[in-house]
Amino acid sequence: MSTSVKVLKCPACGSSAIENTSHTTAKCSYCGSILQINGTQASIQKSQNKSNRRTIIFSTIGLLVIVFGKIAYQHYRDKPVINIPKQSIQTPKAIVPQIDIKSNLPTISTKAIKITENDIKQSQVTPQVDIVDTTEGATSAGGRFWIFTVKNNGQNLVARPGALVSVFDLNGKRLEEQKGWSKIEHLQPQQQTEVLVFISKPPKQKYNVEISAFAQNPGMYDVPQESLEVSDFTVKTKDERQIRADIIGEVKNIKDYQLDYVTVIALAKDQSDKTIGIANAFVSTTHIKPGESSGFKVTAGTFVTHKPSKWSVFAIGKKHKKLINND
User: Are 115 and 220 within 8 A, CB to CB?
Assistant: First the structure.
């Protein structure tokens, strides 16, 4: 009868050099693993293996701590000690400097400003402008407008003539305030012009209106406006009432110098020559040279009270800026 012998091998390293420590456990002589024997099979005893690994790890960490600690101690022991002497620092008191202030302003020369006695006289006189005629109307959107004829009743030239409309309720409380200026910037004595004042949203309740005219004295550097010739124009009505219309025409520069920013003003007149409507627009060309012409189109109707009997059209512009500086 033959007996078969099986050689146990370490599952960890494969070595057959195994020593029995008891009838259930053994130890690998090569790697030191503790084996659990079950019949003819050998398996690694996990708990013991883990314990061995922990022991090795902790031993390694402890050894490293000792080595690095010894190196650090040796480094700081050999480092020379520097003794810093203690010093007492006193903060100086703030010193306020004494400033000697003297007036040394330069003298301003006024020789470049030339003001005549007549200019001084005019600046002391309050402009005498009055409203000589009024037309009131309403827009299709519910706004209210006034067309005032303002006249210079003084003896001096006035600038920027205009009109003021003040609206009050029946108890005298001010509800609205609106100004308007004429397109004509200067008025000679006894000359008159039209001024439009528009309030887009007048009060809904009953109200009273106060009107007044105003102007100012001309400045030394005011640029006077120049008249242009309206050579021709045509009125094309756009509704049955003949209130809405396009005024299309041409203006010509009859001056011997260039005029800029020419404005065309169209006035609607009734049979008595009273102004009942107003509109304005720039001409098609920004600059008009001497002897040349430009077309224009003025759309009217918003500020016209009723069908006009005729239209009065005129144009104004200003002398070219470079020409003014050379004068």
Answer: yes
